[in-house]
Amino acid sequence: MPEASAGDSVRGDDVLMSRVGDRDGDAFGQLYDRYSRPCFALARRILTDSGLAEDVVQEVFLAVWRRPERFDPTRGSFASWLLAATHHKAVDAVRREETRRRRRSSTAVDDERLLATPTNSPPVEDQVWATLRGERVRAALERLPRAQRDALALAYFGGYTQREVAEMTETPLGTVKTRMFAGLRRLRDLLEVAASPTDETGAIG
Amino acid sequence: MARHGEVSDHAAFETLAVGWALDALSDGDDTRFRNHLSHCPHCQSIVDESHATLAEMAYAAPDAEPPAGGRQRLLAALAVGDHSGDHSGEAAESEDTGTVHSLSERRARRRVTWQPLVAAAAAVAIIAGLVGWNITVQNGRRAAQAQATRAVFAAKLLANPDVPHVALTDSKGTAVATVVQTSVGYDIVAASMPTNDTANSVYVLWALSDGRAPRALGTFDVVHSGLDVRVVRSTTTGADFQRYAISYETGRRAPSRPHLVTASGTVGT
Q1: What DSSP character marks residue B229?
Q2: How many domains does chain A fold into?
Q3: Which of A167, A136, A143 is nearest to A154 (CA)?
Q4: Measuring CA to CA, which of A97, A163, B85, B103 is 20 to 30 A from A23?
């Protein structure tokens, strides 16, 4: 159950990662069960390809198992670190794959698709939290100024660089940078995401 | 900071920090910010903070269930790499490069660069960890198979005279564990060590040298009675250590000096 906003869960993740460092396969399995779903969803959103997304998720978890020391709990939560790694690998993949052409027709500033509540949300109990969390985030995104939301969505879910976003939206590069900066700050405030790594949901670079 | 071209002040770097967290910087900005980030804790905190927010944003992606069998394929991918005794792939596929390839491509790209014996030592621990996973998800019969698997790999490890290892005995002279040096620290092959309460206690591996205080190399748990193989991550693999010891400690951290030494052994004996 992806419940990284709960303090106990965050601390639990740290304990599991410590055990992974001791080559504890059971701990690794628990982390996979907890986070493979949001990682896969993110990768699939970026790549628009389930096969490539699965490759990304596997790559990320392989790295977790083989290089657990890369996770530094003093810089944030395991969930943040893992999702950042997933995003990084998915973006890298999408920039190399030929899927970009397809993405251009399917993901460009598609707010309706981005912000729509998934119609196929699984009814199983352990996905309820993730579904609610997604709804909360989508609600926060809707409150951003349109230009900021588009800039963030194109970069984060589309995998486009700031320069590409500037070209696509016919906006000066500096303006795009400012929109992303301001949009993310605003989103953080709306979500009340803790800025300090001592809080429950920090992050890892 | 005009030397950085278009990035003329620190506020501009702070803006780039968000782009960095988004993996959205173009080449020039990416290089400039990478250089800046290496010595700017403030921008690092912005990156960390941005990742926390973006981790929340990830949940806005349409929910999707990983393909059936993904867990098993991951396990298989780990096992394939481990059985080959080759971990060069993991270094080549670092998160810095972010390279993603299909599993078949990864296997094809793997090349042997590790010393085989060191790789074999690491493989023992990795296989043991995977076995531990199997124990949970499979039934009791598999647990017995897992124990047998650990025994086989431990035997292969210890039978190799070229892998540096030190036998540790208890106060009665009974061999209870073997310490094996690896490239990432030490493997502990525990032959008959009691399992510890992993919430409230820990074993500590110590290095002992004449005239020096004991040096804690790392901590580990024994989670399987009988034979167990554990990894102690350590940046210290000193060839000048003369003795090793294992202590049982209350709490989860290594103390400044050992309290209850359960086994010790001398290098070269």
Answers
A1: E
A2: 1
A3: A167
A4: B103
In a domain, A60, yes or no: yes
Query: Does some domain include residue A119?
Result: yes
Are residues B37 and B108 both part of a single domain? Answer: no
Judge: A85–B95 Cβ closer than 8 Å, yes or no.
Answer: yes
CA distances from B216 to A4, A32, B268 (A): 32, 31, 20
In a domain, A19, yes or no: yes
Task: Compare CB distances from B59 to A134, A203, A204 and report the shortest one's residue.
Answer: A134
Q: Which residue has the tokens 């059985």?
A: B83
In degrees and rounded to multiples of 5, residue B214 shows phi and psi of: -55, 145
Please give the residue of chain B at the shortest CA–CA distance from A85.
B95
Cβ burial A94-129 (10 Å sphere, 16+ → b, else e): beeeebbeebeeebebeeeebbeeeeebeeeeebeb
The verdict on residue B94 lying in a domain is no
φ and ψ at residue B195, rounded to 5 degrees: -65, 150
Structure tokens that stand for A12 in this block? 């639990």
Which chain B residue is nearest to residue A121, measuring alpha carbons?
B63
Task: Report the complex ipTM.
Answer: 0.82
**Each residue's pLDDT tens digit, B9-52:** 788 999 999 999 999 998 899 999 999 999 999 999 999 999 99
What pTM, to 2 d.p., does this model score? Answer: 0.56
* B227 shares a domain with B179: yes
Q: Which of A89-98, A149-158, B136-145, B164-173 has the highest mean pLDDT?
A: A149-158
Q: Does A171 touch chain B (CB under 8 A)?
A: no
Of B144, B159, B174, the one marking the end of a domain is B159
- Residue A166 in domain: yes
Among the partner residues A55, A113, A155, nearest to B24 by beta-carbon distance: A155
Nearest to A127 among B26, B37, B63 (CB): B63
For chain A, the farthest-separated pair of C-alpha atoms sits apart, in whole angstroms, at 51
In terms of Cα–Cα distance, which of B196, A60, B127 is closest to B135?
Answer: B127
Tell me, yes or no, whether B197 and B256 share the same domain: yes
| Domain hosting residue B43, numbered range | 2-58
| Encoded amino acid at A149, one letter | R
* Number of structural domains chain B divides into: 3
**Rounded distance, CA A15 to CA A9, Å?**
10
**Domain shared by B81 and B174, yes or no:** no
Q: What is the pLDDT of residue B69?
A: 85
The answer as to whether B66 is a domain residue is no
